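Internal QA ticket QA-208
Title: Verify multi-chain structure generation after dependency bump
Assignee: T.L.

Test input:
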Amino acid sequence: MSLFQSLLIFLSFVAIKDVSPYYTDNYFVDKINDLRRTYAKKYNVPNMHRLMWSEDLVNILDRLDWSVAWPEARITWRYTALKFYETSQIETDVIDFLKKTPEEKSKTIKTDAKSSMKGMELFNPLQRFIGCYPKREGNSSFPVCLVGTEGSFTMFDTTGQSTGIPGSECHKRYKNEGGLCVPNNEDEESYYGHLEDIIESVNQIREDYSREFNVPNMHQLVRDIFSTARNNFFQIWSDDLLKNLQNMNRDNGFKGACVTWRYVHIDTSNKGSIKKELSSTFFEKSDVEKRSFVSINSHKTLESLEFLNPLQKFIACSRNSNTRFICLLGTEGKFTMFDYSHKSSETPGSNCHKRYRNDSGICVAIKPEEESYFGRQSDFMSDINEIRRRYAKEYRVSNMHALTWSNELAEVLDPLDTTGVRAKAKETWRYGALNTYDNTIYHIKADVTRFFEMNRTAKNDHIVKTLSDKDTMDRLEFLNPLQKTIACGRKEEEGVTYIICLLGPEGNFTIFDTSFQSQLAAGSKCHKGYYNEDGLCIMQIPTQVPIIDYRKMAEEERNKALTEEPEPEPILENHGNEISLGYLLVFLLAKLFFNI
Ligand SMILES: *[C@@H]1O[C@H](CO)[C@@H](O)[C@H](O)[C@H]1NC(C)=O
Ligand SMILES: *[C@@H]1O[C@H](CO)[C@@H](O)[C@H](O)[C@H]1NC(C)=O
Ligand SMILES: *[C@@H]1O[C@H](CO)[C@@H](O)[C@H](O)[C@H]1NC(C)=O
Ligand SMILES: *[C@@H]1O[C@H](CO)[C@@H](O)[C@H](O)[C@H]1NC(C)=O
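Actual output:
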């Protein structure tokens, strides 16, 4: 007789007690846990876990229809139907089971574990979560309980021969408490998994795929330092969107996405399940389907495939009650996929980002404590000057100055909020905003390219309009050739943290001639106190006199060369000069340091 039939018969004889729809009374679960502890001690079960009430399981159960089959069962949860929220029936079930001979026991498991082991489901030592909810059959209702996260039925050693120590083989993050395994921190454990487990699984998967597909640049994902971005995101997400998650246009919720981070939903920390999802959504598809999947979804989320973007380095996950985990991955806003054709002959871990090294085929940070989603200010400084030099050369900007970090500007910025920045700007400094210090070159370039592609009229219109609308030309501020100093800091606005940079000393906006009409040489009109270094005006470092003399000489040489043959300006940079100047500097520095 099936469970269902027996229940029907049972129901026809017994008047069913009314069960409250939201049964969260601990009493019932406590009694089950008492029973679990009793049997753990009696049978020396080393891994009997305390069952924790799970609203996630309740929600799953709530959506299920009792009158149809549940193919979802027995993957990450199992179920049992009860008569009441009482343990007497469960106790009877376990006593009956234990009375059986070993042959009868295995026969029962073999036949019933395919559906439900009735009360015995509550004695599976590995289950850690329970959620019960009434199901309706005709006019009566009865409680059904789901237990997770195990999909298969496991029974402890019922022979009485076990010599295990109760509570000695607990799940990680669980400890022995009187023979039962209990979580160290109940708040962090959930049916949907633990953050740590998700990240661990995802990193293992990244490592597996890196080796399987010979990915040269797969980076390990690191948690935590991403927290500011995470807070920004989850604040927006939870406050504005959670309320009507059902009805909302999903994409609105992620409008900050795809710039310096991307996102993915996940409801399991199980490596196998994540891999299964990757196979079914991507790897098992045809090449055409794969390509179209990526092109259709890359502006929002490619779901689990996001976990395989080799260039991501940071991860943050969070969940609100009733929803799956959402993980943010940074600092890439653009989706990148490795070569999955199985034709790559690269060596895993051979193309790590700087400050990352190969460890078992995956790139790990050499000094993780120095890496963060917001990036490093020192990288930013060299990036920002690199992009200024690049534009100076491309557009022959004669007066593009290198930016140096200014503690004075930093002091100005420090006490200001974004409103303050706006109010005080445009006198001796202007400001621009960035999302992170990371990938500055890429982001500035992406933002200014549209401007550079406009015709002269459109450019002027754009400048006039933007300046009348607001106080900043956004990323173009970083290309103002006359600015010489910079200082940046994190500022929050409407729950989102940006990097706000003050740039001085110019209070007016200037952009170089972007029409390709310039006949000047990059770095040929540096302000006083600056010298040309490969197209960029660099501040002279006040050092000993001979060095300045040499520099002046080099500069004069250069200027002389320029005046002697003013046209045509060489298209290619004069590497000869650059190298000799470089050697000169190295020589002088060596002289300075080693006294040779
Ligand atoms: C179920 O309840 C309805 C109304 O409460 C009643 O009319 C009906 O007879 C009941 N059915 C059974 C099988 O008890
Ligand atoms: C990275 O480590 C893996 C495993 O240790 C090794 O097979 C691979 O050759 C290494 N890659 C490089 C570039 O050294
Ligand atoms: C410049 O671009 C704008 C907008 O793209 C266009 O409307 C305008 O006709 C262009 N002007 C010239 C002179 O090409
Ligand atoms: C900005 O430009 C205006 C004229 O366009 C000039 O009067 C003003 O002095 C300039 N301000 C600064 C700070 O250079």
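Spot checks passed. Confidence is low (pLDDT under 50) at residues 1-22, 235-252, 544-548, 565-596.
Status: verified.
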